[in-house]
Amino acid sequence: MEQHLAGKVEELLATVVGFGHARAQVSAQLSFDQIDRTIDTYDPETQVLETEQRSETEGGAAESANGSQTIVSNAYQNSRRLEKIVGSVGSITRLTVAVLVDDQTLLAAPPRAARRPSSPASSRWCGTRSASTAPAATA
């Protein structure tokens, strides 16, 4: 992977400074930690009926005025969502890229009217940049 990325950087630089006038080196720090997480969620807003019991009684002579009586007993269960997440193995935690450009090639090249660097510092920067939050070492 590191050689592949270095080759891509060198190809990109070759379009500006010419083939063989730039070198790139890439160092990747990978994490092979596997994350296995299970999330069990209950939602009280979306309840479902689990069981329902009905009891019916018919009134005797004393209860004939009331008639029959039905008692309903319901049991509800909250909806449940079980989610299992397995994280990928081999994620990039730090990527360091170093680039060397032949300074004589840059000085000898005629200026291009179409090429405008975004800032004066970015047009002639040499060193190492890192994609992590740690400070990068400069060459």
Give a written overview of the molecule.
The protein is α+β, with helices and mostly antiparallel strands and 139 residues long. It folds into two domains: 2-32 and 87-130, no CATH class; 36-85, no CATH class. 19% of the residues lie in helices and 47% in strands. The protein is built from three helices and five strands; from the N terminus they run αββββααβ. It has helices spanning 2-17, 103-108, 120-123, and strands at residues 22-31, 36-57, 69-86, 91-101, 127-130. It has a three-stranded antiparallel sheet with strand order 1-4-5. The radius of gyration is 36 Å and the shape is rod-shaped. The protein starts with a helix and ends in a 9-residue tail after the last strand. The model is unreliable at 118-128 and 132-139 (pLDDT under 50).
List the helices and strands and how they pair.
Blueprint: H1 2-17, E1 22-31, E2 36-57, E3 69-86, E4 91-101, H2 103-108, H3 120-123, E5 127-130
Antiparallel strand pairs: 1-4, 2-3, 4-5
Features of the shown structure:
139 residues; alpha+beta; 2 domains; 3-stranded antiparallel sheet; two-stranded antiparallel ribbon; 3 helices; 5 strands; 47% strand; rod-shaped
Summarize, please:
Helices cover 19% and strands 47% of the residues. By secondary structure, it is α+β, with helices and mostly antiparallel strands.
Number of domains: 2
Largest sheet: 3 strands, antiparallel
Number of strands: 5
Q: Strand fraction band?
A: over 45%
Quaternary: single chain
Q: Helix tally?
A: 3
> What does the average pLDDT come to?
75
Give the SSE order as H and E letters.
Answer: HEEEEHHE
Radius of gyration in whole Å, from Cα?
36 Å
Please give the alpha-carbon distance between the first and last residues. 23 Å
Strand line-up of the largest beta sheet = 1-4-5
Overall morphology: rod-shaped
